[in-house]
Amino acid sequence: MSKVIAIANQKGGVGKTTTTVNLGIGLVNEGKKVLLIDCDAQGSLTESLGFQNPDDLKITLSTMMQKAINEEPFAKDEGIIHHNEGVDLVPANIELSGMETALVNIMNRERALKTYIDKVKDNYDYVLIDCTPSLGMLTINSLAAADEVIIPVQAHYLPAKGLEQLITTVGKVKRQINPDLKIGGILLTMVDKRTKFAKDVSGQIRFNYGKHLTIYKTEIPLSVKAAETSAVGKSIYTYDGNGKAADAYKDFTKEVLDGGKQRNKHRSEIIR
Ligand code: ATP
Ligand code: MG
Q1: Is 33 exposed, middle or buried (0-12, 13-18, 19+ CB in 10 A)?
Q2: DSSP secondary structure letter of residue 241
Q3: Which of 102, 100, 105, 203 is nearest to 142 (CA)?
Q4: Are strands 126-131 and 3-7 parallel, antiparallel or unpaired?
Q5: CB of 177 within 8 A of CB of 137?
């Protein structure tokens, strides 16, 4: 049984792509077979894995979604590229922005990505979708295809309305399209542990949302090394394996694998 996880937040720059790469490769390092899907026309996930010119790629997520929409047959590995740290990738480029508008006019427009993923997911233990920073059709498609959504939140600002809006959208998708969808949890990213402010933000989020949602125990620290990984096309484990960001992503990967045990324990700590 494979698990499909969407990494989503319509706020830009919160660490979605960085989390997709390092959770994905983290799961590979734990012996899992993992497919990453770049569902953002910016192609940042594709670039982060070292494919520097996504616009030159012939087959991308857009091609494969189009095939799924047209009910054209395709091989399970068509368009999938392999990264040397053991993870597979369905890349994206600017063509995906056309898909966002094309979807509006098709039958079953919320399920085009799910139709594609359902055809390839049997080869994998985990499929991770790196969402685009919007709540448009591509994100709805990602939520419709997912079993679980992980929400990275940057600990620099208090997430006000944006997070509520995302949670409302997840609820709507659950009620109207995908009854099995769950919020895996909120992951605090770019936490500057030296400052009191970051501690306050983290504490507030745990206080405000912890009663209803899982807040992962692991917090991803602010780290220059983590920011540099996207430019070198490597995971944090290869680029700075002994650093604190690598340790954090390793711990976070274990929490995702544990699927809730530790998290529930932590939740009761918050309530107490
Ligand atoms: P977008 O909404 O544009 O898709 P995103 O949510 O995918 O953005 P990332 O691209 O992962 O966010 O990260 C935003 C920026 O912050 C990038 O430059 C990235 O390298 C940097 N970054 C990510 N994680 C960390 C971290 N732990 N410490 C410092 N910088 C980080
Ligand atoms: Mg991104």
Answers
A1: middle
A2: T
A3: 100
A4: parallel
A5: no
Nearest CA to 148 out of 115, 172, 174, 110 is that of 174
Given a contact cutoff of 8 angstroms between Cβ atoms, the answer to whether 64 and 79 are in contact is yes
DSSP helix/strand/coil, 181: coil
The model's pLDDT over 46-97, given as tens digits with 9 standing for 90+, comes to 999 999 988 889 999 999 999 999 999 999 999 999 999 999 999 999 999 9
Q: 3-state DSSP call for residue 86?
A: coil
Candidate of 7, 18, 224 to mutate for ligand 1, largest count of ligand atoms within 8 Å of Cβ: 18
Nearest Cα residue to 35 out of 101, 105, 112, 126: 126
Structure tokens at 140: 């709805």
* Residue 10 in contact with ligand 1 by CB distance below 6 A: no
Tokens in use for 60? 């991308």
For the whole model, what pTM was predicted? 0.94
Q: How many CB atoms lie within 10 A of CB 38?
A: 29
